[in-house]
Amino acid sequence: MRIDGRPMRAIWARADGTVGIIDQTRLPWGVETPALASLEDAARAIEVMQVRGAPLIGVTGAFGLALGLREDASDGALAAGLARLLGTRPTAVNLAWALERVRAGVAPLAPGERAAAALGIAEALAEEDVTACRAIGEHGARLIAAVAARAGGRRINILTHCNAGWLATVDWGTALAPIYMAREQGVDLHVWVDETRPRNQGAALTAFELGQEGVPHTIVVDNAGGHLMQHGQVDLCIVGADRITRLGDVANKIGTYLKALAAADNGVPFHVAAPSSTIDWRLADGVAQIPIEERSPREVTHLAGQRVAAPGSAAANYAFDVTPARLISGFITERGLCQAGAGGLASLFPEAAAA
Amino acid sequence: MRIDGRPMRAIWARADGTVGIIDQTRLPWGVETPALASLEDAARAIEVMQVRGAPLIGVTGAFGLALGLREDASDGALAAGLARLLGTRPTAVNLAWALERVRAGVAPLAPGERAAAALGIAEALAEEDVTACRAIGEHGARLIAAVAARAGGRRINILTHCNAGWLATVDWGTALAPIYMAREQGVDLHVWVDETRPRNQGAALTAFELGQEGVPHTIVVDNAGGHLMQHGQVDLCIVGADRITRLGDVANKIGTYLKALAAADNGVPFHVAAPSSTIDWRLADGVAQIPIEERSPREVTHLAGQRVAAPGSAAANYAFDVTPARLISGFITERGLCQAGAGGLASLFPEAAAA
Predict the structure, then answer these.
(1) What is the CATH number of the domain that holds B195?
(2) How many CA atoms lie within 13 A of A291 on its CB side?
(3) Confidence of residue A351 (pLDDT cuts 50, 70, 90)
(4) At what angle do helices A54-71 and A111-150 cross, to 10 degrees?
(5) CA-to-CA dists, residue A233 to A145, A224, A281, A315, B320, angstroms
(6) At what angle do helices B75-86 and B94-106 cross, to 10 degrees?
(7) Using CA atoms, how far apart are residues A199 and A321, in angstroms rounded to an integer?
(8) Taking residues B19-42, what's their average pLDDT?
(9) Which residues in chain B have their CB less than 8 angstroms from residue A314's CB?
(10) Residue numbers of the domain that contains B280
(11) How do residues A31-66 score in pLDDT, each as one tens digit?
(12) Residues A163 and A249 reside in one and the same domain
């Protein structure tokens, strides 16, 4: 997608062998594109959330492993690099998935061949992600068009939580890809953007993305979605995901569950858009089984370096919650739409479900 | 309650004829106590939220009308003063209720007697509010003790949204009064404090109050309550109210509805604490009938004067939402506990329900 009219991706291999990213902790105020030159650079970029979003974390991890193997391609370095990258963030399963793709591809090779092979796999993963997100956009745009048709031509309102746009992937995004494509196809729509405390990825990143693409949108606090739905101001919710169990429970940014409850209470369709790399086929019960990252309390108590909470008061900072499949109307994947719940995802990805 | 160990109320008549308040836009950073010297001072204090909270808004309005009548006690000035104060904030019904109490008391009097009578009524309303909140605390403390008994002696966790503490009333508070009293009675408890965007009354005021009284508490973002409830970390929710319909629908700070949905989904009791001055007996359907204030988008896009949202993006700022009675376990009023829904409130306040 575009920044200041210029096409960009969220991560790319640079001619000098380093990896370019957009420093998302600086958006929307500045567009800085630091270069990752080592595995440690990539690990830190994930930890401090210069890059974030489940698909983008996965691709960044793959590039990071490739950078590490360029310096030391031994079995020991491969194992240590995998452990370092896997330990950066626990909830999004795309990271483990992407790292395993690289590991499986390079482990059988002689050390001297590993770095180049890893870079090739990372680049392939990036391209696959773009392809998957474009497909998610196409499938999701049909869903949006159907909602618009039922609305009889008036402008429809879509609510999204956090940022599941192109900045959370390599390009296009997951939840936002259908919105971008529906708009290109002439659907008249407006997006309610949850600001997404504590890190404000909605107000800072989703609003920025939508603004750059000229998509009408309005920022609201995370508290507002239920009120909007009670008053008929939301026709459809679309969110991304960080991990999906085989039964369709969805870990996503903290607060997603509350919006899904409100959608169910008001008969508003609630869809989750994600590539199959976000599905953890080993897990069934999301609330019980998906690890939820706890981040620094300072993300809650401080904003832009300034304390906003009462002095002396402690804070807790759970980064994700789990929305049970029963609250989800359906999934939007690269292979199309499916119902949430047992059998839905497996019907689209039978080979993965059986593995 | 106390600030720095010193007993204080949230509003008081001063010896010089002005009215003292705590400037709540300065908390928790500074304790400033400006004097309201005119009706316009009082109206502005309500509008800019130097004072906020439904019961405190009502008492402030009453004092404001008394200040106005001191300058001009004519019928015209009384009507204009009522209109000015009523127009400050639309959702909390306590304001209209308190102003009507003053109007009904002074309208039959000769102009020369009105100012003193109005001041007397305002002071009586303040005392009634303290009495009501203390009673709410006593009734609610029994509820908390019962929850603690069921928990078998372990520390219990109570979640609250926004600030319904003593700073939202004259003293004691509504939702927090039971917590203060239960703690005095030796109940081992901990409070989850929703930060309450966009104005952060939880992080700034509730956390401050609880800290001053030594009540264990932890601030979380508004997105977190559902996750906490899914994981058994909330034994009870208690919130305040800005307007309650006769059938038990509750307007309260935006986001209350989302927490009530999560409580219902997880079997967590969800109680609303309010004095009877918060009940609007004329209304039945809260979602359809309670006016919801829209405040400046700047409260969403800016924090401490600094823009936190993407440049150029618009914001909407609905200040309240409505929680349907079906999601409320019960009310805590100055006359005791009752079920939500038809008949509950009327059983405690039959004379008002019949009026």
Answers:
(1) 3.40.50.10470
(2) 9
(3) very high
(4) 170
(5) 17, 11, 35, 33, 15
(6) 170
(7) 15
(8) 97
(9) 217-219
(10) 137-353
(11) 999 999 999 999 999 999 999 999 999 999 999 999
(12) yes
pLDDT-derived band of residue B223, with 50, 70 and 90 as boundaries? very high
Nearest chain B residue to A251 by CA: give it. Answer: B227
Of the candidates A98, A91, A128, the one whose C-alpha atom is nearest the C-alpha of residue A283 is: A91
Alpha helices in chain B (DSSP H): 39-47, 54-71, 75-86, 94-106, 111-150, 176-184, 201, 207-212, 225-230, 256-266, 286-289, 298-301, 344-348, 350-354
B280 is catalytic: no
A94-145: pLDDT as tens digits:
999 999 999 999 999 999 999 999 999 999 999 999 999 999 999 999 999 9
Neighboring chain B residues of A219 at a CB cutoff of 8 Å: 300-301, 309-310, 313-316
DSSP annotation of B34 reads: P
Residue B157 shares a structural domain with residue B93: no
What type of residue is A127?
E
Contacts of B348 (CB under 8 A, 6+ apart): B276, B333, B335, B336, B338
Residue B306 has pLDDT above 90, yes or no: no
Please give the ipTM for the structure prediction.
Answer: 0.97
Closest CA to A82 of A103, A101, A63, A67: A103
State the DSSP string of B189-221. EEEEEE--TTTTHIIIIIHHHHHHTT--EEEE-
Q: Tell me if the bond preceding A198 is cis, omega within 30° of 0.
A: yes
Query: B313 to chain A: which residues are within 8 Å by CB?
Result: 193, 203, 207-208, 210-211, 217-219
Alpha-carbon gap, residue A307 to B299, rounded angstroms: 17
The rounded distance, in Å, linking the Cα atoms of A164 and A176 is: 6
Alpha carbon dihedral A288, A294, A297, A298, in 10-degree steps, equals -150
Q: pLDDT exceeding 70 applies to what percent of chain A? A: 100
Which tokens in the block code for residue B206? 């509730």
Q: What pLDDT sits at residue A164?
A: 98
Determine contact: A215 vs chain B, CB below 8 A.
no
The DSSP secondary structure of B108-162, one letter per residue, reads TS-HHHHHHHHHHHHHHHHHHHHHHHHHHHHHHHHHHHHHHHHTTTSPEEEEE-S
Claim to verify: residue A71 and residue A32 sit in the same structural domain: yes
Residues of A with active-site annotation: 242
Whether A175 and A237 have beta carbons less than 8 Å apart is answered as no
Tokens at A209, concatenated: 């993305």
For A280, the token pair is 């953890």
Do both A73 and A142 map to the same domain? no
Looking at the structure, tell me whether residues A269 and A188 fall in a common domain: yes
Average pLDDT over residues B260-267: 98
Query: Tokens 């009097």 identify what position?
Result: B109
Residues 6+ apart with CB under 8 A from A188: A148, A153, A154, A155, A156
